Amino acid sequence: MAKEIERKYQVKLDAWVPQGEGIHFKQGYLNSQKERVVRVRIEGTRAKLTIKGITTGVTRSEFEYAIPVEDAAVLLDNLCEQPLIDKHRHKEVHFGKTWEIDVFHGLNEGLVVAEIELASENEAITLPAWAGTEVSSDPRYFNSNLLKNPYTTWNKA
Q1: DSSP state of 72
Q2: Which CATH architecture fits 3-153?
Q3: Rounded to whole angstroms, how far apart are CA atoms 134 and 125?
Q4: What does each of the 157 residues of the chain score in pLDDT, given as a tens digit?
Q5: What 8-state DSSP symbol labels residue 56?
Q6: Cα→Cα distances 150→19, 110, 138, Å
Q7: Which end of the chain has fewer CB atoms at under 10 Å, N or C?
């Protein structure tokens, strides 16, 4: 069984400068229950169907399959929960580990988070200067929850 072990951090916007344009992502959810998430995503010129299980700690089951972009577009427009997630993803290597930095648009404008995939939950990492507060266990930051409770609606007091 495939496992995803991932930590997520807020990005300090005053310390991070994008290196390039990144890749445009458009994604939606056929199912966004916390026990199982079924996601459709177009990443630039490729598309994927991803199934994820419930998160325990920072680990969950994950199964991912390439699908035709045309099929993904139909699923996103006609079957996925709305609104869709719209973001640009940037990748940066820090101390030999690849970080994925997501810059959200639309109803999640202003949200920028960084994720790092790990080999184990206990794996030691060195945080980049732009990595802020860890939000791995805060369900508000799950992409599947951002469509129900967009960042622009959060009380940021």
Answers
A1: H
A2: Beta Barrel (2.40)
A3: 13
A4: 588 899 999 999 999 999 899 999 999 999 988 889 999 999 999 999 999 999 888 898 999 999 999 999 999 999 999 999 999 999 999 999 999 999 999 999 999 999 999 999 999 999 999 999 999 999 999 999 998 899 999 986 5
A5: B
A6: 26, 11, 14
A7: C
Measure the CA–CA gap between 36 and 117, rounded to whole angstroms.
Answer: 20
Residues facing 77 on adjacent strands = none
Residue 116 to residue 98: CA distance in whole angstroms: 7
Q: How far apart are CA 61 and CA 65, in angstroms?
A: 14
The residue type of 157 is A
Contacts of 33 (CB under 8 A, 6+ apart): none
Active site residues: 29
pLDDT of 157 reads 55
Q: Within 10 A of 77 (CB to CB), how many other CB atoms are there?
A: 12
Phi (first) and psi of residue 144, to 5 degrees? -65, -25
